[in-house]
Every structure is written in structure tokens, then in C-alpha cells.
Design goal:
- This protein is mostly helical and 300 residues long.
- It folds into two domains: 85 residues, DNA polymerase, domain 1, CATH 1.10.150; 178 residues, hpI Integrase, Chain A (Orthogonal Bundle).
- It is built from 13 helices and three strands, in the order H-H-H-H-H-H-H-E-E-E-H-H-H-H-H-H.
- It has a three-stranded antiparallel beta sheet with strand order 1-2-3.
- Strand 2 and strand 3 form a beta hairpin.
């Protein structure tokens, strides 16, 4: 495999720091972007990255079209290269950005999966809460469903983020963007009971500022949340996917079905663009159509 020369390797290292520190992207995204850019730089062989043209990028993209990547993966690879050249242009390493008009494939956006109120009640009511870990798990899932926050946001919560008297929680989303989410009284009750009676048992083993702790007193990890939901789904034999992201979808769908303004839902979810939130209106519309087709005598 072709190796990057020292100068190009240093450039990639600087790009990685830019993604981590200035863009504040997740480690998963940083790894993916850096791998994508490295693959591109290796494809260039002896060409310097600052000397390539729009045509070179198009040729590279054409060369990977036949590798059976999904549209999502291709879109990410294009985003990686565009971000890389935006960085180079900002650092004055190129006179013009050759990736400025590069566009990704149009993705088919499936409707988000979600759970109804009845399904969520069944899920929540079947979580074992007799043990400290079980009660913590119920508090975690109640909080995710009530607030619509991302699992990364939940795992990073500290006491300074809580304003439970006002049913408010401050979270830091993608890019470190701060927003306030609201928590229901039911979820707040579970969270308060956890903080008062359960968390101190875990915190004795390790002084930790985070809200949700594992049995060793360390910050609860995203993978552990996924494992909890996986176990609940297995126990209840749930056919749908049960994940933190589906709980987020369920939260947004419920709000819109009950008349919440789209802009409010956008703010609560922390979406940068309203277009990301509009997909939930399609879910609500589809449910209306399904109900109509089943109930109206002349529908068929």
C-alpha cells in the first residue's frame, strides 16, 4: 500500500486536530473522515493535494463508484473531501477550493421508525426496577424518551446541566451547540429518585461529576445504553428496532401528532436545519392516511 510522505502525513494530522478541536466532531466521525481523506490522498500517488483540480476529485469519485458503497457511505466520503479542502482553503494552502461544487448522491430518506404511546408504556413498565442498576436503566430510558436528547448528550450530563424545578435540562449537542430540553414530570420523578437513592451507591466507588454512572462509579457509556435497550427488546420480543435514536424519533413524532409547532420540535431536537425535522411531518401524515384507509368506508 502506498504510504503518505511526511509532509502529506503532517497535513492529515493537522486536519485531524481541526476536526477534533475546532469542529468538535465525535471520535467516530473524526476517524471516518480521516480514513476517507487518507484513501483519497493515497489515490493521488505523487500528486500533491494542493495541486489537484475539480476534475481530479471527480475522477476519484468515479473510481470508487464501482465499489458497491451505499449512498450514505459515498455521501460521507464526499463530505470528508469537501471538509478537507475547506480546511485547506481556510489555511491558505490552496488558492481556490477544488471541491466547492462537488455534490453527493441524492439519498433516499426512509421514514423514521418510532413507537406509539402504548408500545412505549409496555416497554417502560417491563423494565426491572428492583435493583439499583434496573432503576437507573429505567431513569435513563424515561429521560431519553421524555426529552428527545441524543444518547451522547445523556451520557455527558452533569449536575450543572439540571434545572429540574423548571423541568429543564441543558445539553450540548453536535459541535458543542448548547440548547435546553424539557423533561416530563414522570421522567423527572424517576430521575430525582435515581439521584437521591441510587446514584450515591455508585458514586461511593469513584468521585464522578456525571449524572449517570455505572456500578463502578464511572460515567455511563453510550455502548451500555445500547446494551440496555437490546436486552429490553430481547425480553419483550420486540420486532421493531429499539435504540436511543428510535426513542428520539418517537419523541418527535409524538409532539407533532399532538400539535407541536415544527420549529419548537426543531429546537428541542437540536437540528441545525428545519429540513431535518420535516421528516417527522411525513410520519404523521402517513399515519393519518393509514388510519383513513382503514376507517373510511369508501377509502378503497
Amino acid at each position: 500500500m502506498t504510504q503518505l510522505n511526511e509532509r502529506t502525513q503532517a497535513l492529515e494530522d493537522d486536519f485531524k486536530l481541526y476536526l477534533e478541536i475546532e469542529r468538535n466532531l465525535s471520535q467516530h466521525t473524526v476517524r471516518a473522515y480521516c480514513q476517507d481523506v487518507m484513501n483519497f490522498l493515497m489515490w493521488l500517488k505523487d500528486k500533491k493535494p494542493e495541486d489537484i483540480s475539480h476534475k481530479d476529485i471527480r475522477e476519484y469519485l468515479s473510481s470508487i463508484q464501482n465499489k458497491n458503497y451505499s449512498k450514505t457511505t459515498l455521501s460521507r466520503k464526499i463530505a470528508s473531501i469537501r471538509t478537507f479542502y475547506r480546511y485547506m482553503y481556510r489555511e491558505k494552502l490552496v488558492e481556490a477550493n477544488p471541491a466547492v461544487n462537488i455534490k453527493g448522491p441524492k439519498k433516499n430518506q426512509p421514514l423514521p421508525k418510532f413507537f406509539t404511546d402504548k408500545e412505549m408504556d409496555e416497554i417502560l413498565n417491563n423494565i426491572e426496577i428492583k435493583t439499583p442498576s434496573g432503576y437507573r436503566n429505567r431513569a435513563i430510558i424515561e429521560t431519553l424518551y421524555a426529552t428527545g436528547m441524543r444518547v451522547s448528550e445523556l451520557c455527558n450530563l452533569i449536575f450543572d446541566n439540571l434545572n429540574l424545578e423548571q423541568n429543564e435540562i441543558t445539553v450540548f449537542g453536535k459541535g458543542g451547540k448548547e440548547r435546553i430540553v424539557l423533561i416530563s414530570n414522570r421522567a423527572k420523578e424517576y430521575l430525582c429518585n435515581y439521584l437521591e437513592s441510587i446514584r450515591p451507591k455508585f458514586a461511593q466507588k469513584n468521585d464522578n461529576k456525571f449524572i449517570f454512572l455505572n456500578t463502578e462509579g464511572f460515567r455511563f457509556q453510550q455502548r451500555s445504553v445500547h446494551n440496555i435497550l437490546k436486552e429490553v427488546a430481547k425480553k419483550l420480543k420486540i420486532q421493531k428496532q429499539l435504540s436511543a435514536h428510535v426513542l428520539r424519533h418517537s419523541f418527535a413524532t409524538k409532539l407533532l401528532e399532538n400539535g407541536a409547532d415544527l420549529r419548537v420540535v426543531q429546537e428541542l431536537l437540536g437540528h441545525a436545519s428545519i429540513s431535518n425535522t420535516q421528516i417527522y411531518t411525513h410520519v404523521s401524515t402517513q399515519r393519518l392516511k393509514t388510519a383513513y384507509m382503514k376507517a373510511h368506508p369508501r377509502a378503497n
